[in-house]
Amino acid sequence: MTPKSMRPMLFGPTYEEMLNPQRIEPDVRERALQIQPVNELDPLNLFNITWKDRQNRVRRLVLPPELTGVQANIIVMLGRYFPSGSHKVGPAYATLMEGVLDGEIVPGVHNILGPSTGNFGIGVAYICKLMGLHAVIIMPDNMSRERYERITGYGAELDLTPGSESDVILTLQRTHLLMKDPKNRALAQFELFPNYRFHRFVTGNSAIEAAADVGNGKIACFVSAPGSAGTLAAGDQIKVAFPEAAVVAVEPSECATLSTGGRGQHRIEGIGDKMCTLIHNVRNTDFVAVVHDEACVKGLKVLQDGTDALVRMGVPRASAVGLRGMFGVSGVANILASIKMAKFLGLGPADNVVTVATDGFDRYPSVLSKLEASDLGAEQNALDRWFTEVFAGMNDEGVFDFRGQPAKERLYRQKENDWVPFGYSREYLDAMRAPEFWENEFDKIATYDQKVRSSRLRASAS
Q1: What are 9-36's pLDDT values in tens digits?
Q2: How far apart are CA 371 and CA 365, in angstroms?
Q3: Which of 24, 190, 255, 440 is found 20 to 30 A from 376 (Cα to Cα)?
Q4: Where would I find the H helices in 251-404?
């Protein structure tokens, strides 16, 4: 007989329990914590979907100033400790959970589609494995090898479209085509609001907690690269606590769609998707900062393999060692943009910049192998040089101010151009200009939490 804890589980935590895991029933919480390091495929891992550790503290790093070169405190929330290795598993679970509760997804009847460039697809494959559903992950065919291996390792199918990160629009087109089959249901991260709800409530409030004992305890700036723009929704909640906080979207300079309308190719997996996503609340985006993809890849090499170089540049050895394994390319992009914004805004030692590392290094060895093959990246003097170029040499150029209405209007037009072709009306898109639209979506959390609790009670009674 299959052990009870190993059986597919239709309902895991509520939004409230993902933010505050201490509110999970104690026995369930303890068993989930014990199972995570030994069996990632046990469905109890649903109750490990949280930013927090066993002591209910947000997993974070406060970067050493010798690395950042700025006085402001740069706080990085660490996504690698989530089940499946990325915080994207949170919105994957939330989207599937809401779909089942609303009757849109019927386990055993529907296949689950997961359009993605990697981490969300990994999260969908993982959640479907735990909840006993079949997943098809639709993603570009030029992403890192480690991502494909992780997805198929969870038993999901891959449906690959041509291109790379900047060609995610093809995955959307493929998803909408497959949705014509009534057996298919999409966890469409770019357009469904569970992604927004998870990050605004869980990530946003966790970010506020992460900064509470650093500097002045406030958040002066929140920085996040939008792939789906889900993580960027944390800024909406941060602005509730700190109205003067600047919310900053990060783009590759090679594909600066939001800032300049650019649509080129780049190497930062997980961001820069040639669109303004449907769930992006552009009214709360204050700045867009651009970074070079080459700098991000080289920066990852320095953090991962340049411990001695970092020490030579003044970073304490314990801090340099502690940076290894913590970041992927998009996490480095967020760090570099955070340094840029600290300089641009003139932030001081009391000020906090909060950003996120979506995942860790485990899904990027092949990226560094390509760098080493093309740029002699293994040479120690290259690591010293790259530290100077990438971190010490970061300037405040490439920051675009979107606080004015004319700039925001361009983002609204971008969103309209991107989403009307997928069947969304201009009237619906215009409704997103009002704060009430976003508050109404956010307020649905209480209803879904009650539905989860009721469903768990019925399941336990049956």
Answers
A1: 567 999 999 999 999 999 999 999 999 9
A2: 10
A3: 255
A4: 257-260, 293-305, 307-312, 317-322, 329-345, 365-375, 380-386
What number of residues does the chain have? Answer: 462
Are residues 156 and 117 located together in one domain of the fold?
Answer: yes
Amino acid letter, residue 282? V
Residue 194 is which amino acid?
Answer: P
CATH number at residue 177: 3.40.50.1100
Q: Do both 375 and 243 map to the same domain?
A: yes
Task: Please provide residue 55's backbone torsions phi and psi, each rounded to the nearest 5 degrees.
Answer: -85, 10
Can you give the residue range of the structural domain that contains 279?
60-84+200-401
Domain boundary among 371, 401, 431: 401
Residue 170 host element (H or E):
helix 168-178
Judgement on whether residues 66 and 117 belong to the same structural domain of the protein: no
Coil, strand or helix at 375? helix
Could you read off the pLDDT of 216-271 as tens digits, one per residue? 999 999 999 988 889 999 999 999 999 999 999 999 878 778 887 756 565 566 55
* 38 exposure class (CB count in 10 Å sphere: 0-12, 13-18, 19+): exposed
Token duo for residue 287: 């700045």
Same domain, residue pair 175 and 224: no
- 352-357 sheet: strands from edge to edge: 60-62, 73-78, 352-357, 221-224, 246-252, 287-291, 399-401
Q: What is the pLDDT of residues 375-384, one digit of tens each?
A: 654 566 789 9
Q: Are both 260 and 372 inside the same structural domain? A: yes
pTM of the predicted model, to two decimals?
0.93
Distance CA 25, CA 227 (A): 34
Provide the pairing of β-strand 73-78 with 60-62. antiparallel
Cα Dmax for the chain: 65
How far is Cα of residue 107 from the mean position of the Cα atoms in its chain?
26
Verify that 166 and 283 share a domain, yes or no. Answer: no
- Residue 306 in domain: yes
Which residues make beta-bridge pairs with 160? 139
Give dist(CA 165, CA 357) in Å, integer: 18
Q: In angstroms, rounded to a whole number, what is the distance separating the alpha carbons of residues 423 and 169?
A: 14
